[in-house]
Amino acid sequence: MKSLPVVNNSFKDLYQMFIDSVRSNVFLAGVELKVFNYLTKPMSAVAVAETIDDHPENTRLFLDGLTACNYHRAGIAQEMARIVSKLPEFSSFKKMLDLGGGPGLIGISIIAEHPTMKGVIFDQPAVVKVSESFIRQYEMDDRMEVIGGDYINDSIGESYDFVLASATLNFAKDNIDLMMKKYMMH
User: Does residue 127 register a pLDDT over 80?
Assistant: First the structure.
């Protein structure tokens, strides 16, 4: 298994140094293109391109740029793994779900802290393609898998000891009771 890089600086400082200028330009372009008006619900890059009358591949690259403005690589993944690994139950976990796990780096970090636990990254189908590449990059193929779908409507898998839902349930606020019933049945 390949280790995630050791980060000795605060993830906040690294994140700020790297991303501020890039992020502001990407967000400004999004405002000018009115992309955010159409991202209130999940849409493919092709659908967004058609809506804003742009080239599908350019739109995909732009949306990838928006996605890349994340902080998972700046130490937050390792910090989350450190916090989760201190839970009293951690050693007994067998399978975790990273719900809305994005690129999967937080899930990868948590699984790497445990000698045998398996993990699932669940996110939109286009997003889990990125997760799969990170799973391969960090040599976690034997312990991690992905499920692509809509967690409000699709199956999220089952038999999880631990579910991480960081920054994702806000998208389901109108369906939270239904979702909780669904999850409790698994």
Answer: yes
